[in-house]
Structure formats: C-alpha cells, structure tokens
Amino acid sequence: MWTVSTSQTPKPTRRRRLGQYFQNIKDSYTISRRTYPWVGWAMLGSALGAIALSVGLSRLTGLALWYCLFLGVLLALMVCMIILSLTVRRASYSQIEGMPGAAKAVLDQIGRGWYVESEPAAVNPKTQDAVWRVVGRPGIVLIVEGPMGRVQKMAADEHKKVHRILSTVPIHTVHVGTGAEQVRLKDLPGTLRKLPTKPVRLTDSEISQVSKRLSSLSSKGLPIPKGIDPTKMRIDRRAMRGR
Predict the structure, then answer these.
(1) Which residue range is the domain that position 132 belongs to?
(2) Quick one: average pLDDT of 209-227?
(3) N or C: more exposed end of the chain, with fewer CB within 10 A?
(4) How much is the pTM?
C-alpha cells in the first residue's frame, strides 16, 4: 500500500523567506526615500561606479571580463545595502520623532550592555510626556520625553526617587526632543555611549543588580494610564509607508 506523505517540502518556506527578504528591502527603501529623496540616485551611482571599476580592473590586469563583472555586481550589491542600512535607521528615527514612545523605539535598538525597562518610570496621561529608565556601564540614565519646561519637575521627581534607593549609583538625565538643549532621536544612541564611566563603571553583575532594584521600584509605582501601551511602542513601518 502506498502512503502519502503529508510533510511539506522546504521550498515554500524558502520562497516565503526570499519574498520576505525582498519585501524588507523594498520597505527599507521606501522609508529611506521619504526622508532622503536622493538615496535611489546614490545607490544607482554607487552600483554603476562599482561596475565601471570592475571593467577598469579587467583592462589593467588582463583578467577575464566576465569574472571582473561578477565581482563588480557583488560589490555593487554590497555598497547599495550599506547605503540602505545607513539611511533607513536615521530616516525611521526622523519620521517618528515627536511621537509618544519614540525614545523607547530607539532604546530597543541600542544593543547589548544596556538594560531598558519595558514600561516608562513616569508618564503624564494628558501630555504623554514620559521618563524611561536605562541601566548601563555609566549607571542609571533617565530618558525624558517632552518639552523641557514641562518635564523638569517629572524628571526631578524621578531622579529623587531613584537616588533614594540607589544613592551610590551615578544617575544621568537625557532630554530627548527637538529643542535647543535636547538630544535628537538619531543622536540618542551616540549620546548614551559617550556618557562618562568615571569614577564609577558598572560591571555586568552590578547592572543586573541595579536593574532588579529598579524593577522592584516599578512594581510599587502607579499603573500606566489608559491609551498608552509601552510594550507596543515600536517603529510602525506600515504607517511610515502610508498604509
């Protein structure tokens, strides 16, 4: 008796992955072009330059033209991906700047060595100004979203609250926004990396201990107001594409 296998072949999965890969490239290009209209021309010029370079290499070295063209196409693709990766993140940040929770979307991308709380430490339900707590080598960093004149008291209150239970840990305050004394979203990762680590530099175990203390402090805090879901404050790529 013949048995019919119900297992699916891996081809549809590979096709879906390939389709998703090209869709991601298309979305990234759409996001980048919205902020940087020149990105398409930059990619085209770089690709043509790489191919021209491969032709020149073939004539100078005597290598087979097809071989140099193959290397040129690979180089062109690599350069285009580099340009796209450099522009899409900055474009995404500029397009969400000013939105509630935009700082959290950036903080989620800062990589290893940092602990970012999933919920804001303090939030104004009317204005949606927020304070986020981050722990890293420099100590505790309070990321404050909102106009400077409006969030000063909220930031000061949060600073006092944290200092009360972690008085030996350095506390830094970074104001995010478009004001004169504020840090733009695209510059936030670099600002965090440049924070001083002297005379105190937290180790991995100390970062873990401090984050646990902050988590216990958050569990005793006020509930998050309705209408704000900090766990879903991410870059909305569909909205950026105008859908």
Answers:
(1) 102-231
(2) 66
(3) N
(4) 0.67
- Asked if the structure places residue 222 within a domain, the reply is yes
180 within domain boundaries: yes
Greater model confidence, 220 or 108: 108
For 226, residues 6+ apart whose C-beta sits below 8 A from its C-beta are: 125
CA dist 125 and 23 (Å) reads 37
Alpha helices in 97-135 (DSSP H): 102-107
Q: What is the pLDDT of residues 87-110, one digit of tens each?
A: 888 888 888 887 888 888 888 888
Given a contact cutoff of 8 angstroms between Cβ atoms, the answer to whether 31 and 241 are in contact is yes
Tokens describing residue 38: 């020149």
**What b/e string do you get for 217-228 counting C-beta neighbours within 10 Å, with b at 16 or more?**
beeeeeeeeeeb
Q: Which is it for strands 139-145 and 171-176: parallel, antiparallel or unpaired?
A: parallel
In whole angstroms, give the CA distance from residue 92 to residue 32.
8
Looking at the 3D structure of the chain, how many domains does it have?
2
Contact predicate 123/224, CB 8 Å:
yes
The arithmetic mean of pLDDT across residues 199-206, rounded, is: 89
- Domain-located, residue 4: no
